[in-house]
Amino acid sequence: MTSKISYNIHAQGVRDQNKLLDHLRKIQPKSVLVMNGYSLCKTIKSQNPDTIVIHREWPDDDIYLRMTPAQWIASKKAVIGSDDIWVYTTNEPGYDPKIIQWHEELLKLNFASPNPLKLVIMNASSGVPKPEDWNLSNTLLKLMAQNHDKVILGLHEYFGAVATSGFIGGTPEDTKYHPNYVDRKNWPNQEAAKGITKWHCGRFQFLVDYCKNNNIQVPRIIMTEHGADAMGDIDAWLKSLRPTPPSTGVRGYKTLTNQWKLWYPDWSNQQTYFELVKYLDQNIYRDTVVEAQLIFCYGH
């Protein structure tokens, strides 16, 4: 059975490659991203031929300012050749007309060329763009629809401390507008979650709604970064939680060990993290256009 839950891998931080490869053989991931390790991309693809393997070359945050789309395509084709590897364009570049227009030109040039690259584009940070700003990507979304089988939209969706953060709005412990979403007995099932506005994980629905309202084919989506992290809109609440030394705040899963012991005493830190991403997989991303959720990160 293929796993949608997979990894954003930092190749230079992998200490035991054989352990990683054995694990990937077992979970048969729908997708895997590898940063700064093209040879690892090819190895993973050779043993998992049905996996969407994505190559990311860092630094790439401002690549749209340093290379024209034509230069970028030429540089990637020199690496990829005829290999069946997908290519990551930018990483959390923000969201403005310059970035969007760069990607529009990139798609036009790439898909007009012989042997076009398969692209994972944008890879926008969590909370970007605002729901009302998807209209800026109208032309880009139409270009994606024309090349639906060879271009994927990368988005980053994180939760703050608990998978249900951002549901409805407010903090997960707020009971004024919703049940206490920290309590796992109150986590909505898939059907109930459909009617809930989701500002953190599940935010992709704003894009889906925009496309449907404007008669545009919804793009393929992979969460190229996923997991637990700081979330600015609930920062004050996160700062009220119990950190795990040496960290002075809560962010990634290791920093949440002490807090999760209070909330979920019958689960280990590792199991808690698994249960949270499993909940999202089964109730928020299942039966949607989201093809995989890549936990950030494996390696470092």
Beta-strand content estimate: 15-25%
Distance between termini? 28 Å
Task: Output the structural class.
Answer: alpha/beta
Main sheet properties = 8 strands, parallel, barrel
Low-pLDDT stretches are none
Range of helix content: 25-40%
Could you give the order of strands across the largest sheet? 1-2-3-4-5-6-7-8
**Molecular shape:** globular
Number of helices: 11
> Please, what is the average pLDDT?
97
Order of helices and strands: EHEHEHHEHEHEHHEHHHE
Number of strands: 8
How much is the radius of gyration in Å?
A: 19 Å
Explain what you see.
The chain is α/β, with parallel strands linked by helices and about 300 residues long. About 35% of the residues lie in helices and about 20% in strands. The chain has an eight-stranded parallel barrel. The two termini are about 30 Å apart.
